[in-house]
Every structure is written in C-alpha cells, then in structure tokens.
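Board notes (copied after class):
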Amino acid sequence: MNNPSLVIFDLDNTILNGDSDYAMINYLVHTNVLDESAGKQNKIFIDDYQRGELDFDAYTTFALSAYVGLIQSEIDAYITPFVAKVIEPMINVFALKMIHDHGDQGDTLLLASATNELIVRPIAKRLQIPNVIATQVEFIDDKCSGAYIPPSALGAGKLKLVRQWMEQNDYSRFEDVTFYSDSINDLPLLEAVGHPRAVNPDPLLEKIAMDRGWEVIALPTI
C-alpha cells in the first residue's frame, strides 16, 4: 500500500505573517533578556536572510546566545509565553486552513524550518503538525551549548534533512511531494519536489516561480 502524499510547509512568512526567529530576538529584547544592541543586529541579519545571503553560523551563535548554559525547562520558560503572546497572532489563518485541508485529505504533514528546534517544535505542536525538521541545537550535559548540529535546515541543508526524513519514513519519490514556501533560501527543496508552491514569495523567488510556471499563492495576511 502506498504512503499518504507528503506535504511540506515552511514556517516563517509562509504559515506565519513574519519570522519566528526574528520575533524571538525582539521578544527577548522587549523582556530585557537581551539588550537593545541585539535588536539592531537582528535587523541586519534578517535583511541578509531576505537577500539569500545569511551567514548562518554567525546568526545561530547570535540567536542561541540567550540560552547558553540553560537546560530545556529553563529555555521553555522563555519560549512558552513567546509562542502564546507573539506567535499566536502571527499565524496566518488562511495558511492554517491549507494545513487542515491537507490533514483532512489524509496527507502526511511535515514542517521544515531553518529556525532552531527550540522555537519550531512548540509551534509545530500548536499547528498540529506531527513531523518536524528544524535546525538541531546542541546540548552538552543537558545544557545548551549555543551551537547547532550540522547540517542546518537552511537551503541545501533543508533539502538534505528532508531527504533523510523521507528515507527513514519510506518516501522515495520527490516527484510526489508538495512543498509550500515563501523564500529564495528554499530554492534547493523547491527545485527537488514535484509540486513546488510559492506562498507570498519574496521578490527573488517570485521571479523564479513565474519563469518556471510554478504555482504562486497569494494569501491574505490579515
């Protein structure tokens, strides 16, 4: 018997009206966990990301800096209220409907985000998406080291991690896979799947999608 169809969703600016990593740093600044200079650096990094030029190692060191030396429960004390107060209003209800429609059809749902797993997994739970790929965070003696476990889930790394997940879950045909994303950073995975879907795409991705005849979905962001 064949597996259900695999449908992959990017998170930031696809399901969410905004970027969860960017929002998390701003939240930590707002709650005085990080100082104001972190907010300025955050803006520089998000601009680099939107151009497809992010130095992922530098950004991850920056994004995980608040959690270094903390155990998971201490990190959750930051992330749980963040998801409730900040992420919940960012969820695009039209994207949420797409998720629910695919779930109702019996499709296998996979959330694949370059954002670190400390943030992505609680959001996936809220979205009721059971399968998650995110940038893995290193813990040593149960404490966050501030480093990630390669490969990152950005660009070609996301494609590699999706391929590994598919092999482990008996999915062999990228031709049958649907992937929803907004970002030029996801071009490697979009090119690999049989059904690429550009959702509110950034200008670079929109041009490629139009040139290649990919479906472009304009979701309201109210």
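Comment from the instructor: The CA atoms of residues 45 and 202 lie 16 Å apart. The two ends are 41 Å apart (CA to CA).
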